[in-house]
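thread: overnight batch results

M.L. [08:02]
morning all. the overnight job finished for the chain we discussed friday. pasting input first so we're all looking at the same thing
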Amino acid sequence: MPNQHRQQLAQELLGCSYEQLTDVQRSVIDLIATEAPSGVDPRLLIDDRTPGQRLADRVAAVGGSWAFIAGFGIALALWMGWNLLTAQEGMAFDPYPFIFLNLMLSTLAAVQAPIIMMSQNRAAARDREAAEHDYLVNLRAELEIMHLHDKVDSMRHREMLQMIKRQNEALRILRAELSERFKPGPPAAEPAAAGRKRAGKPAASARDR
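M.L. [08:03]
and the structure it wrote out:
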């Protein structure tokens, strides 16, 4: 049973449950969950060719080279030249139209073609294994980038929330300071009373006179 972390990664990155993933996708999720590096596929490191497959690869390597074409062309030229130049002396072993040469070429083509096809089929199988491994590595890199983007977005969201909280707190403190500084004071009663006392002193002095 996959753990909760693998289920969460499968839902976030691939949009489905862990049980619905393919084998390659599961291996990628496992690598991301365990944070293990993507190594080379062991199937690509093991040389499990049989002797026949090794011979087929060798024949394909030689038969598909310019050296083989040049050597084969020289052999054909010598074959035909010898039989043409020595035909009058009776030393030609394959006179014109070179029936034995045609038989040799047909036999060589009939044998060489299947051998090269066997080598190509085996090479195609290894290419498919290498392509599958490349797909695994590329899929993991893409999912890791997506996972990293999610982490960065989450960090940015938390930072924005903290910044907004700090700004709100600063605004609250500023409002409190402004309201305290511009708070209206009590009415000035003492100056009015002093004015009334000054107005009553001249009247009293007039009565005294």
